[in-house]
Write a structure and sequence with these properties.
The complex is a heterodimer of chains A (573) and B (279). Chain A is an alpha/beta fold. Chain A has 18 helices and 21 strands. By secondary structure, chain B is of the alpha/beta class. In chain B, strand 1, helix 2 and strand 2 form a beta-alpha-beta unit.
Amino acid sequence: MAVDSVTIALVGSGGAGVMTAGQMLLDAAAAVGWYGLMSRSSGPQIRGGEAAAMVRLSPSPVHGPGDRFDLIVAFDWQNVERFAAELPLSADSVIVTDPAQGAVPAVLAASGARIIEMPIKELAARIAGGRVNMVGLGAVAQTVGLPRAGIDAVIAKALGKKGEAAIQASNAGYDAGAKEAAGWGLGLELAAPQGTGAVRWNISGNEAAGLGALKGGVRFCAAYPITPATEILEWLAPNLARTGGTLVQAEDELASITMCLGASFGGVPSLTATAGPGLSLMTEAIGLGVASETPVVIIDVQRGGPSTGIPTKSEQSDLNIAVYGLHGDAPHLVVGPTSIGDCLFTAQWAVHLAEALQTPCIMLSDQSLGQARAVIDRPADAPFTAGRLLAEGLDGEARYKRYADTPSGISPVAIPGMPGGEHTADGLEHAESALPSSQAADHQTQLDKRLRKLTAFDFGPHWAEIEGEGEVAVVTWGSATGPAREAVKRLEAAGGKARLVAIRLLAPVQPAKLAQALEGVTRVLVVEQTHGAQFHKFLRAHYDLPGSVTVFSRPGPLPIRAREVHEALLSLI
Amino acid sequence: MDTHLKDGAAPVPGDYKSDVKPIWCPGCGDYSVLAGITRAMAAMGLERHNTAVVSGIGCSSRIPAYTSVYGFHGVHGRALAVASGLKLARPDLTVLVFGGDGDGFSIGGNHFLHACRRNVDLTYIVMDNQVYGMTKGQASPTTEADWCESKLTPEGPGVNPIQPVALALSCGANFVARGYSGDPNEVARLIVEGVRHPGFAVIHVLSPCVTFRPEQRSWKGAVHPYGREPTDDPAQAMRAVLEDDGFGLGIFLAGNRRPFHPAVAATAGIAEIEEGFAV
């Protein structure tokens, strides 16, 4: 019987090619119509060291990691203990191991998983130019029933430049692995693709964020490389250039954010991307963006913290700094994408909001969204672009008031190049004229105005994703949404009922809207990936949560799995 | 305040002044630098709406509010980064940057290094009074090691002052000059030359703080023409700077490095880029 989802790990130390093989598996599965998700686990080593490509395939869209691994193919076991906790197994799991690489480590063998020995290295060595990763890939492909056409397309694309010999070697390795696996009879053949007819994309969260920024109108980026945000910059560098924009590798994060403020002052929508430590360095200048009313988007791809924490692994623990980290009273925007595909929507919306409200917007992605790659249905086009309320009638007698106190709180802005709009944007408190002022009345007026911009704005239905019904609700955000969504679907499939509320707009808070979304709810489950339950406390501070509240919160690097959320939900039913 | 220059009339320095009264102490050197700036703007006939001045924080960084062009008054130390972003995003603008010795060489030191080597077409006027005036008199990166007047460093800072002109040269700045606020016409001339020179221009202006460093009044007698023609050879300029006593005025280097500016012509639409993700 075919399965609806299969979760595979390719494990090996640097040079074994696990990431390449995982990538090819995902690409080949995509080519024949399946959906999938690939995440990476690696240590801090630059080259070499332990690594695993974790791939989940399904005929329908994949929301998060599988509950456990159905199949692990290990090219070697070097340092696997370091991330054994990230490789949950059961007695139903299968471990494929090369006997030449020694015994299966006890920490994995203890699961009771079935162990199959396969002379991976030897099989590869028999082929001129043969590589272990292609042998492993062949075995996995055979196990899940991947049609040969899928891998043909991928090998041709990946190795076309390397010549016919490389293609032949890869094919031979693949075939050798497939032949080995033909007799295993594991029952892990994946159900046939459903063929929804939708255009599908193969995209990472970081790429999706970059694309969303471009679609929103960003044409300037200054940034400093940091894991796990760098891929946003690497994707933007050529694509900004293609669209007439500019990317600058700045000397540090302080330069990154302030260069963006300068470009934005010049009227060009701007973005920087960073991770937690970089966000900390930027917070003073984000406050400058608030005070000077200069729009800018900061994408924080969160990782384990504090300090340098665990740079290659995910967490949602920058919520507090993103929401509360600025000095003074500094109302600003904070948004969080709910999936890899939603990184596009949320980044595009972030640009739109920042520009419309003339204020910084922090987008909280994380490593598990950013560095994971998924096959998804092409996201629908969203109508959000950068549009700043420009000053008009500047040729008149009246002096232009950059920070005019308007009912909406939004002051029409003059951009350099507009005659009559000359003014100084200022981080010092100022009067409506933009001239520095330390007078109480001016401070009160400008504080009120900057807050009113956010509280008076209609964010529409995009503040959250709301699904399902019933008296039990899961309230979550960001990357925790995927497993929460899958858990709710699982409950529904068994005849249960639950609501899912995934909050996309973290700041400003929307208490009336959440109250409406939770009407009739008596039990709430909060799901997040932090140690200190930051999101739960955030909700407690700003919202009235109905009935009893249960919190599922744990730090990284272990991903939250649907099974865990499902179990927590069942205990509330 | 008129917001436009009068049609046909030659611009005058007053056209570039705002009606805001500076917060500076009586006798501050920055008044004269401001005069030099507006004279330079008038001499070049800059269009106000196509000119932007950027600053960080400190006494001299207040200058944007005192001019009538576009301005950005940011936070301590980041003026050069703000200006770099602005100029790269809007190459059509004339962008000048103002700041002091603390803003430029201490908290903003890293940006100074990289602005020199990046060579964006900016003109940076750094007003050096060898003291933190706005925080009421502490040592700056250009203060002498034995200056004992600060409560923070009563025995003197005890560390060598940096030499801004030599630092700029060593980091690859393309145009390096020194002026003195007591001679606003010369400051204006240096600014005009700096703006016209392609790439990053550093103009170090000795600008006394008579409140916390009254002895700087003596600079009037100490300054002297640097006395040589500008060179385009950084090594030659560096030799001359090292031989100088720190009070030589003039253009040390007018180099010929190519300014940094990425191409900005679009070659693809979003739809074309999106196609790259299709399975």
